[in-house]
From TrEMBL:
Matches recorded under Pfam families: BPD_transp_1
Any one GO molecular-function label of the UniProt entry: transmembrane transporter activity
Native source organism of the sequence: Mesorhizobium temperatum
TM helices/strands, residue ranges: 7-28, 40-61, 81-98, 132-150, 181-203
Chief location category: membrane
PROSITE patterns given in the database record: ABC_TM1
Domain ABC transmembrane type-1: 4-203
Official protein name in the record: ABC transporter permease
Any one GO CC term of the record: ATP-binding cassette (ABC) transporter complex
Family, similarity comment: Belongs to the binding-protein-dependent transport system permease family. HisMQ subfamily.
Entry's localization field: Cell inner membrane; Cell membrane
Keywords: Cell inner membrane, Cell membrane, Membrane, Transmembrane, Transmembrane helix, Transport
Length: 221
C-alpha cells in the first residue's frame, strides 16, 4: 500500500509540474522570441528523443549532484534531496516536454476569432490566458493530457532502478522474499490496471464537463 501511495504521489506531482512547464513552454513556442523558441525546441526534441530511463538516470544522479555542486560553489552546505522530490522533478521535467506539444496543439486548435476579439477588447495577456485561452483549449487538450497522466503513472515504475520505494520496487522486494514472483507481479499489474480504469472514469467526466455546449463526438462524425 505504501508503494502504491508513493507511485500516485509521484505521478500526480510530476503531472502537475509537467502541466505548468507545458503551458509555459507552449506559450514560449508560440509567442516567444527566436531564442526562447529555439531553446524550447531543443528541450522538447531531446527529451522526446532520448529514452526515458536514460533521462531518469541522468537527471536523478547528475541533476542532484549538479545542484549540490552549485550550492557548494556559492558557499552553502550540500542538501539531501529526498527521493520523492527528486522523482517528481525528474518525471515532471520529462512530462513537460510532451505537455508542451499537447498544449501548443490545443492552443492552435482554438478559433483565432475568439483570441482576436479578446485582444480587440483590450484584454491583457494574463486575462486573455485565464478567460479565453485556457477554457477554450481545454477540450482539445484533455485527450493528450489524459495519455500523459497514464504515462506518468506507469513511468513511476522506472524509479525502481534508482532505488525509490514505489509499487514496482515494493513488488520486487516482496516477490524476492517469498519467491512468489508470479503472484506478486500479477497483483501489481492488476493494481496498475485498476488505477488506469479509475483514471479513465474521472477523465471521462472531466471531458464531458469541458465539452459542454460543444457538438458531441458522435454528432461530429
Amino acid at each position: 500500500m505504501v508503494g502504491l501511495l508513493h507511485s500516485v504521489e509521484i505521478a500526480a506531482g510530476a503531472f502537475g509540474l509537467g502541466l505548468v512547464i507545458g503551458i509555459c513552454g507552449a506559450y514560449g513556442k508560440l509567442y516567444g522570441g527566436p531564442v526562447v523558441r529555439d531553446l524550447l525546441a531543443v528541450y522538447t526534441t531531446i527529451v522526446r528523443a532520448v529514452p526515458e530511463l536514460v533521462l531518469i538516470l541522468l537527471l536523478y544522479y547528475a541533476g542532484t549532484d549538479l545542484i549540490n555542486q552549485l550550492l557548494t560553489a556559492m558557499g552553502y552546505q550540500r542538501i539531501d534531496i529526498s527521493g520523492l522530490v527528486a522523482g517528481i522533478a525528474v518525471l515532471g521535467f520529462v512530462q513537460g516536454a510532451y505537455s508542451t506539444e499537447v498544449m501548443r496543439g490545443a492552443i492552435l486548435a482554438i478559433p483565432q476569432g475568439q483570441i482576436e476579439a479578446a485582444r480587440a477588447y483590450g484584454m491583457s495577456p494574463g486575462l486573455l490566458l485565464r478567460r479565453i485561452t485556457l477554457p477554450a483549449m481545454l477540450p482539445f487538450a484533455i485527450p493528450g493530457l489524459a495519455n500523459l497522466w497514464l504515462i506518468a503513472t506507469k513511468d513511476t515504475a522506472l524509479l525502481a532502478v534508482v532505488g525509490f520505494f514505489e509499487l514496482t520496487l515494493a513488488t520486487r522486494q516482496a516477490a524476492g522474499v517469498t519467491k512468489a514472483y508470479l503472484t506478486f507481479f500479477l497483483a501489481a499489474g492488476v493494481i496498475y490496471l485498476l488505477l488506469t480504469l479509475v483514471s479513465n472514469l474521472i477523465i471521462g467526466r472531466i471531458e464531458l464537463r469541458a465539452r459542454r455546449g460543444m457538438p458531441s463526438l458522435k454528432e461530429a462524425r
